[in-house]
Amino acid sequence: MIKEKILTPFQKFVNIESFSGILLFAASIIALVWANSAYSDTYIALWDYKLGIKTEQFQLYKPLILWINDGLMAVFFFLIGLEVKREIMLGELNSLKKLAFPLTGALGGILFPVLFYYLFNQNSDAAAGWGIPMATDIAFALAIIKLLGNKVPLSLKVFLTAFAIVDDIGAVLVIALFYSGQIQLNFLIISLVLLVMVYILSYKGLYSKYLTFLVAVVVWFLFLKAGIHPTLAGVLMAFSIPIRQGATTPEFVNKLWEITHKIKNAHIDKSPLLTKEQLGYVDDLEDWVGHYQSPLQKLENRLHDWVAYLIMPVFALANAGVIIGGDQHMDVALAGVIVLALVLGKSIGISLTVFLANRIGLISIPDDINRYHIIGISFIAGVGFTMSIFIAGLAFSGSPIYIDSAKVGILIGSTIAGIIGYLILRFMASSSNVEAA
After folding, report:
1. CATH 2.60.40.420, applies to 2-180+229-244+294-427
2. In terms of DSSP H, where are the helices of 266-399?
3. Extents of the domains making up the chain
4. Model's pTM, two decimal places?
5. Which of 21, 100, 285, 344 is deepest in the core (most CB within 10 A)?
6. What is the Cβ-side half-sphere exposure of residue 162, based on CA atoms within 13 angstroms?
């Protein structure tokens, strides 16, 4: 019974991400069909349509696709920041023992794809794309795992999730350090002052969701003007959200009992409307529920569905529509390099580093995970969609040919990696005579 209660939140997370992966796949197919149909002009025109504010003194006027990639994706990065903070404070990354296994895999899964990209890319103009094959799309990856049912042990799902979170940290750092523009220090300094302010208030237990939202919007705008990709504002703002509760469980239970007793003894008539006295008790109860809930957990739970079921599919719909066979020539070599980096770079990097670290005693692999589980999941980690396409847009900004070629490589590489990983886990890893890793 205790085990079931502990695992339920993780199982819910897996279910949400799995269905999100299905929506991402559907949105990608729709985008590809739409972009290559007789209505391709409407696809291009929709995402190029400009929205915003434009006056003589102020201008924030951008194509719809940039509002999605810079605006909506800031919410996606905010959720990543919340998940990272939770995992570091209380989850699978809160101790060296827990961190060692996924960290080892993540390092191999980051470094080897970059190495493959550098080794096989012969075009100096495309050198900036080295960060594209780094990231794993957790939604797609867990959707594949979901298809395998109970053939995949829970510890492997936990490893994949923790691995993807470490992977996301690496991708965020890479975007911040290597894919931001020329920095305007005045805007950056103001934004950092605001961030420090909300950090201090949070540390002192003074948290207001309205103030946090206002500061988040201002910091996002300042990052945009400073030349730093504005989505990173989402990650930094997430770290300001307190994880601790405002009231302990005993305090909340005592208050709950006290308020419930007052409501029960309050004057009750046949009217469906509450009395003024009852409304006061209900408001008091809502206040205590708010105090009892962790602000970070509350925000994460509320945002997860919006990100999984709306923001990520919309991102896929706006970005996956590559026009194939149009007037522009495809850079086949670039697409091929990305395929190699995602399929071979990820699988070799993760498997090799995990097996080597296990052999020399740096990590301990759970008993229910065998070598084919590791190999299979390392291929599935090569499914890099959302973050890979996002980085491709940053790396090749202003070069539609490279962006489209990179997207083709991401789609093909992710598909190949996902299929190979599924087949290994489906037909090899479940064999009863396979030895542990």
Report:
1. no
2. 276-292, 295-306, 312-319, 332-340, 346-359, 371-380, 386-395
3. 2-180+229-244+294-427, 249-289
4. 0.81
5. 21
6. 24
